[in-house]
Amino acid sequence: LTVKFLETPHAFSNLSSTKFVFEVLVGGSGACNNCNITCKLVDGFGRINTPQCEHGTVLCKGLHDGNHKFEVCPNGTQGVGCSSYNWTVDTVPPTANITASSDFTNALNVSINISFSEPCTGGRGFVCSSVDACNLLVYGVSQVIPTSLKMLQPNLQYSVLVGLPSTAQSGRVILVMDKNFCTDRAGNKFERNKNSSFTLHFDRRSIKLTTHVPRRQLQLNGETILVRATNNYKKPKVCLTFPEPVLNTSEEIKNSLKAEILYSLQMSEGSLLPLVDTKKYEGPSRFEFKVRWFSQSNFTFSAMRVEVATYKFDTTVVNVSIDTNSIISRHGTSISPVEPFALIYDSLRPAVTLSAPPSESSRPAVMLRTPSRNWTRERNIPVLIKFVKPVFGFNCSHTSITGGKLQRQVISGYLY
């Protein structure tokens, strides 16, 4: 006795019910008319209408996901000949998760990982052949880089780069898997889950280094620099604020700062005293330190908010910079670099003496001289005014002349 199956489900099916049609043959050709036939499900959950088994048609219902085995056993005068059919029921649609190493970045390109729950090769499968033909959808001022697509695990895991705009300082990009673009081997269509979308934030904003000390342009050693000058010995303030809270401690921030003396009548030394960490969010985004200057030859500086308490009157030009490579935001990204600035502290008022060379006193003086004699035929007479130290705001209104016209030409911060 042999059993010939005429109708069966697919080897992988997404149906919870199916029908079997079969016939029992004697000697491989003739039908068995007096056979006793039994049908049953083995190693599976479900139910069958056994009374129909004698007629060669069985309907299976309530099938659970998993492996199933349907068995037919005819019993007649010619003996017993059992046959079975194995198949798998899978009603769970395939899905995929989108991940990245971090949801915050300051990079131009970010690697995105796509992990499928099972192979989804029906239809076209997962493709990303161009910006407009990619099953990873990008919403925002960004786009995928199709040439970067890699298959990390066959039909299960992929990686692709997403390019972020270089002109934008901050923003966000939403990545979402496409809809119904593939099927699994059971025929289930792809469905999104809560992890099939990913929001990526990018932030390239630099540190804000601000102060109430006014800006001035200063020519020093033939180079024009932008400085902030003050004679306020009652703690002038400099504030340094991060765009995002950082994970670093006050001591780590202090160690990343550098103050370089560019010019000084008397070299100074400073010490750093931490004041306040502001913790408005998960980590501090602004720090406060105090700078004290003493009469030595070294200098150290502070972070975010600087309060200067000067105990020895002199003139000092200090360049303040910060190494951002060691500073990490709360999201694990590095901080973009910030331009350094120069700070001038000067408590001495400049003085002008026109009749003699510079005074030997500690007060700054100016010497007025001309290359010509007292008598000349020249229409234009150059006059050199040299200050002992750089001054700001000097113009023609601060001088007077009789019998001629005065014109001004700035040579440097202390030569006119």
How many strand elements? 32
Strand content: over 45%
The DSSP helix count reads 1
Largest sheet: 5 strands, antiparallel
> What is the domain tally?
4
Cα end-to-end separation: 119 Å
Basic shape: rod-shaped
Assembly level = single chain
Mean pLDDT across all amino acids = 76
Radius of gyration, in angstroms, nearest whole number: 42 Å
> Strand pairing plus helix content: what structural class?
mainly beta
Unreliable parts: 265-282, 293-313, 355-362
Helix content: under 10%
Q: Which tags fit this structure?
A:
1 helix; Immunoglobulin-like; 46% strand; five-stranded mixed β-sheet; 416 residues; five-stranded antiparallel β-sheet; mainly beta
The gist of it:
With 416 residues, this protein is mainly β.
Layout of strands and helices, then pairs:
Blueprint: E1 2-7, E2 12-13, E3 18-26, E4 30-31, E5 36-42, E6 47-48, E7 57-61, E8 66-76, E9 79-80, E10 83-89, E11 96-100, E12 104-105, E13 109-116, E14 122-123, E15 136-139, E16 143-153, E17 157-163, E18 170-177, E19 182-183, E20 197-203, E21 208-211, E22 215-220, E23 223-230, E24 234-241, H1 250-256, E25 257-264, E26 269-278, E27 286-294, E28 305-310, E29 315-322, E30 341-346, E31 366-369, E32 384-387
Parallel strand pairs: 2-10, 12-20, 23-30, 27-28
Antiparallel strand pairs: 1-3, 3-4, 3-7, 5-8, 6-7, 8-9, 8-10, 11-13, 13-17, 14-19, 15-18, 16-17, 18-20, 21-24, 22-23, 24-28, 25-29, 26-27, 29-30, 31-32
